[in-house]
């Protein structure tokens, strides 16, 4: 059985290739039952989360990711999310590889948002607002830049020093990134607004949004968390990665549906429908679109398979 290190996985998973791998798997290349979601008490401090995420391609590959999410980890100098994927032969069950979950998890999450943006953001989107400064933020920026002609990146975070640090990192990569102080002003000027936070209170308000924008929400992975207010989902055409996950775990959809501010049928399509051509995605340049992701095991499987097959080349 191979062991693929974080370095090997990072080298294998470039965003153009990974976005296309996810597009193909959402077109019907895998089965993925709902993930197991368990709260892990952690005193003192915020409770952790254990996620068990199986998926398989009949006769080809079978995989399961074991992931943990501990919100206090950045204060310890550790990433909030840590994981590994066990990849097996789908015909025999033989273990093939243990694939490092970092950066696989970050990259497949960012690639899913980029895939959604490929259907939902205006083709000429040039200005990206990155809300959040954690480990996911630079990956979200790189992924969005792989599918749209982003010419400027504004970075906002609760801690200005972290926003400055991330902007500097992105500039060192050749990207035109600047930290900003006003979140409202950043939202008003952006074509694509990407949020990667652990927020439990709305950050993005619907009254700030304007026609033509695309809002990408990948944080707030629990029903108790959210990054947008009710008005934001009311003014937008709403999409998600999977109905099974987002409508159960994504607070940005769960809370307004429970409050009666959003109807279930207002969530127009998931990535399955978009990739299979069952929904056109953005229907005009003056619409506001909003995408909510909570993650799906078939994304991990697609990324693990891509990394594994490239390691054999």
TrEMBL record:
Extract the InterPro entries matched here.
Answer: NAD(P)-bd_dom_sf (IPR036291), ODC_Mu_crystall (IPR003462), ODC_N (IPR023401)
Protein name according to UniProt: Ornithine cyclodeaminase
- Organism, by scientific name, is Rhodovibrio sodomensis
A Pfam family that the UniProt record links to this protein: OCD_Mu_crystall
Question: Which GO terms fall under molecular function for this chain's record?
Answer: ornithine cyclodeaminase activity
Question: In the record, what lineage is assigned to the organism producing the protein?
Answer: Bacteria, Pseudomonadati, Pseudomonadota, Alphaproteobacteria, Rhodospirillales
The keyword Lyase appears for this protein: yes
Report the superkingdom from the record. Answer: Bacteria
SUPFAM superfamilies the record matches: NAD(P)-binding Rossmann-fold domains
Q: What are the record keywords, sorted? A: Lyase
The residue range of the signal peptide is none
Q: What's its EC? A: 4.3.1.12
PANTHER family listed in its UniProt record: KETIMINE REDUCTASE MU-CRYSTALLIN (PTHR13812)
């Amino acid at each position: 059985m191979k062991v693929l290190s974080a370095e090997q996985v990072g080298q294998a998973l470039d965003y153009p290739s990974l976005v296309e791998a996810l597009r193909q798997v959402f077109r019907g290349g895998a089965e993925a039952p709902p993930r197991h979601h368990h709260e892990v008490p952690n005193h003192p401090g915020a409770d952790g989360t254990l996620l068990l995420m199986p998926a398989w391609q009949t006769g080809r590959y079978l995989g399961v990711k074991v992931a943990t999410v501990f919100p206090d980890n950045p204060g310890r100098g550790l990433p909030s999310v840590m994981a590994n994927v066990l990849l097996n032969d789908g015909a025999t069950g033989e273990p093939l590889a243990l694939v490092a979950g970092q950066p696989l998890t970050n990259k497949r999450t960012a690639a899913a948002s980029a895939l959604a943006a490929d259907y939902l953001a205006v083709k000429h989107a040039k200005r990206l607002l990155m809300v959040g400064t954690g480990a996911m933020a630079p990956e979200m920026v790189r992924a969005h830049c792989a599918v749209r002609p982003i010419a400027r990146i504004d970075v906002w975070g609760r801690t200005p020093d972290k926003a400055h640090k991330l902007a500097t990192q992105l500039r060192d990569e050749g990207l035109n990134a600047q930290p900003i102080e006003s979140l409202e002003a950043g939202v008003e000027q952006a074509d694509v607004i990407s949020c990667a936070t652990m927020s439990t209170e709305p950050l993005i308000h619907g009254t700030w949004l304007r026609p033509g924008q695309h809002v990408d929400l990948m944080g707030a992975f629990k029903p108790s968390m959210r990054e947008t207010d009710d008005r934001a989902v009311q003014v937008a055409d709403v999409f998600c990665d999977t109905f099974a996950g987002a409508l159960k775990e994504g607070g940005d959809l769960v809370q307004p549906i429970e409050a009666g501010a959003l109807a279930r049928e207002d969530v127009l399509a998931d990535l399955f429908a978009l990739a299979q051509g069952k929904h056109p995605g953005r229907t005009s340049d003056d619409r506001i679109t909003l995408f909510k992701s909570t993650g799906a095991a078939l994304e991990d499987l697609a990324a693990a398979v891509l990394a594994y097959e490239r390691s054999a080349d």
